[in-house]
Amino acid sequence: MSDGLRVWQVWMYCHLYRRLERFRRPELLDAARAGGEFLLHSARVAPPAKKCAFVLTRDGRPVKVQRTIFSECFYTMAMNELWRVTGEARYQSEAVEMMDQIIHWVREDPSGLGRPQLPGAPATESMAVPMMLLNLVDQLGEEDEELAVKYAELGDWCAQRVLQHVQRDGQAVLEHVSEDGEELSGCLGRHQNPGHALEAGWFLLRHTHRRGDPALRAHVIDKFLLLPFRSGWDPEHGGLFYFQDADGLCPTQLEWAMKLWWPHSEAMIAFLMGYSDGGDPALLHVFYQVAEYTFRQFRDPEYGEWFGYLNREGKVALTIKGGPFKGCFHVPRCLAMCEEMLSALLSRPAPAPARPIPDPARRGAE
Amino acid sequence: MSDGLRVWQVWMYCHLYRRLERFRRPELLDAARAGGEFLLHSARVAPPAKKCAFVLTRDGRPVKVQRTIFSECFYTMAMNELWRVTGEARYQSEAVEMMDQIIHWVREDPSGLGRPQLPGAPATESMAVPMMLLNLVDQLGEEDEELAVKYAELGDWCAQRVLQHVQRDGQAVLEHVSEDGEELSGCLGRHQNPGHALEAGWFLLRHTHRRGDPALRAHVIDKFLLLPFRSGWDPEHGGLFYFQDADGLCPTQLEWAMKLWWPHSEAMIAFLMGYSDGGDPALLHVFYQVAEYTFRQFRDPEYGEWFGYLNREGKVALTIKGGPFKGCFHVPRCLAMCEEMLSALLSRPAPAPARPIPDPARRGAE
């Protein structure tokens, strides 16, 4: 149950196989394909309905189902990436059909997700939904003119929905807003997740790149990169807080002050992407600062891999390398993307960075 | 939404009013009665069905509904206690009708709770369910011969179900077991919650007291008091861990090593009750040890009340005094019960305890 296949692992294996020469290894493709076939066979809870399980047993029986779109989003990413490396059309048609179902749930009728409609629960938008969908637009439209055109309007809609999470005269990114883009009352409305804002930041940067919108690009760097970094970085012990309250009150989540691996890997991607696009040395400086903390605090020099969960002071709080939410995804995606961006920077006729990347030998090893 | 009334607060106000002379104040009864009327009017999500909301808006609309029995259990406790202090029969009939519904959900047909039946999810029993029901048997049967007789068999059944969470030849209390009382595979099966075991311990002690079963009493003290204390007490920094893994592996919950207020208040009740019944000084010694840690680490000497959430080292991690799960319940229940037990001990012709209770002036102040 706990050692099952991860949907995002299928995506990751295919992505590494496709993008990085040294990972073009048949065993990686075979594993991804086996995972994909398992998903095709077992992911749906009640086929032909498209709702997918979040956890399956080793033999493919559903254990948990989330009343959100995220299992289906990762399913779509895995299927699209499998199509890209194998060329088999059935994977792509799975991806596009699931994408259309997700769009229907998000933009037309969420009732298929199974969430109860309670009269006292305000209609809220979690930033995770439009940002995940924006990431899918990026995934499906990559070097695919037809789908890029098909989903262009959707991409604009997603970007606009993510952008409405910038609240308080541009002074805060809030994780949940009302359906109309207003701040919600109480601690739900004040809830902030700096790593999530930074991840949304690089999804938006790629969107502005596709759309060729430099004014939006500057806004994104200001509001989704620099703002969450400034407010989310612990001035005392370093590292990004997991959760914050926009009024500076104490969050109600027990783990709010912990330092998790993935906000740091997403921050590295965001700042390196921001620097690669525009050349502002301030963004490169933050990339260094985050990377230095990350490689110093999260990596396990003895047995490899990164730890996932540190306490506020930076001490390892959970010794597990993988768990219900830490799999083969954020770390390799960060390392692969940073490697590609750094290689591109180094091949440009530009001055080399003033300081070396911390422990560069490490990056290719995971 | 977040400042709503708490069901357990109604119970607590009535309980203090009824049991402790200095709390027999009309404003406490008025507040409890107002809360009770609000619950009667608004707690049920879709009356006449009995499922209750977990969170309501200030004006009584449901915000969250849990697919468990716990909201209904606290509703039952509140109504029964309201009947005890007001004598109004409508509160008691509400309590008994809800109790019968809960018993139906637990022992006959859980489908009304709305949990999906997934083929890969093993049929598990969470210790919380029989222990909560055992606590209700205690509540409803107190000085009520008719209900004590009505629920006697249920009490035995609950005790037997809680006892089957003692696993591994008596070496571990496991939070989740199979429906047949076997250890579950994986980290779910190894999951331990020392504070919960200790709370179950004093529920069982009261059961053995009602049933007059000294052999069971010795077993409970051994397995639900001393065992969780020995394995759950942090030898390095003191205090009870929130979660543990029965194999000593790292739990997957981010907050596993934090020190929460309620396991400590439940431990104080359990050990003082164990000592009061049998006189074993070892149990009094543990009570002292827990109370000393608790009053030193959790209480706020400046503004009163207890903090709820410390990090492993004992530093306050969340400065909130109340939150989604910390209300007017564990602290006053602990202080009221300990005060009653200590008064009874002091009025006995027995040698006085060798060491004073830490900061006794504090106890009555909350």
From TrEMBL, chains A, B:
The record's keywords, sorted A to Z, are: Isomerase
CDD domains named among the record's database cross-references: AGE (cd00249)
Report the superkingdom from the record: Eukaryota
Q: Where is the signal peptide?
A: none
Enzyme Commission (EC) number:
5.1.3.8
Keyword Nucleotide-binding listed? The answer is no
Q: Which top EC class applies here?
A: isomerase
Annotated pathway, please?
Amino-sugar metabolism; N-acetylneuraminate degradation
Keyword Isomerase carried by entry:
yes
Its UniProt entry gives the catalysed reaction(s) as: an N-acyl-D-glucosamine = an N-acyl-D-mannosamine
Family to which the UniProt record says this protein belongs = Belongs to the N-acylglucosamine 2-epimerase family.
Can you state the subunit structure given in the record? Homodimer. Forms a heterodimer with renin and inhibits its activity.
**Name under which the protein is recorded:** N-acylglucosamine 2-epimerase
**What organism does this protein naturally occur in?**
Vicugna pacos (Alpaca)
The protein's gene is named RENBP
